[in-house]
Amino acid sequence: MRLEVEITGKAFKNAAGGTQDVLAPIKFSLGDGEVGVLIGPSGCGKSTMLRIILGLDPDFQGTVARPPNARIGMVFQEPRLLPWRSVEQNVRLAAPAVSDAKLSELFRILELEAHRSHYPGELSLGLARRVALARAFAVEPDILVLDEPLASLDDALSGRLRDEIATLVASRPVMTLLVTHSLDDAVRLGDRLFFLSPRPARIVAEVPIGTPRDARGEAEIAAIKAGLARRAQGDRAERDVS
Ligand SMILES: Nc1ncnc2c1ncn2[C@@H]1O[C@H](COP(=O)(O)OP(=O)(O)OP(=O)(O)O)[C@@H](O)[C@H]1O
Ligand SMILES: [Mg+2]
């Protein structure tokens, strides 16, 4: 199974009646078990691209081929929980087939046990994000799309959740698309990193990470990050002189 993305353009109409190009031509594909990471400046079109890939926005040029009947787990940039449903009900509504054991495991991993019966209005943003993660995982997705899922969590918790995402991805053949502004998360979780330009977004660099995720040691992670930072510096220098 593969996810094939070939977007040739996307524009929004603005209030003044003009149009604003948000996506330039973008082409990539993802296979089972692969984690693609999208990294790009704020406002370049990442969330727009994810909505198109999930089929939530049909108004674009190009094609997106998702595997037929793929189950989708999605963590939106805003947690988007139903305010009149408890934490547990929010997860169960999205994943009616989830077993009690699986639900308990997810709540334990995401440290949500004490919040099962709370309502979204009673949660901090970080807690709400964890509920959104529980909901996406409970679906046992074939395609997992995560739009900055670790934002607004403290370092220790975001590190633990990042490891849990890695465990989930290793446990079943799921294709994952992750948006992050953290190079550290990108290098620890990603198999291929896609660096995007400012709006309209296009892929300016695609960086594969050859070593399997569970074999990446701290020294290698640091070396990859340093290489990417040098590369970004080089790109900036090139832009400055041209
Ligand atoms: N429904 C909409 N109507 C008009 N313009 C929109 C709409 N949604 C997004 N935009 C514009 O499209 C551009 C890309 O937005 P998008 O949310 O995809 O960016 P992003 O890369 O996800 O940014 P961030 O990193 O801040 O989340 C922005 O200029 C935004 O204002
Ligand atoms: Mg966004």
Automatic annotation (TrEMBL):
Keywords: ATP-binding, Nucleotide-binding, Transport. Involved in beta-(1-->2)glucan export. Transmembrane domains (TMD) form a pore in the inner membrane and the ATP-binding domain (NBD) is responsible for energy generation. Residues 3-223 form the ABC transporter domain. This is ATP-binding cassette domain-containing protein. Belongs to the ABC transporter superfamily. SMART domains: AAA. InterPro entries: AAA+_ATPase, ABC_transporter-like_ATP-bd, ABC_transporter_ATP-bind, P-loop_NTPase. GO terms for molecular function: ATP binding; ATP hydrolysis activity.
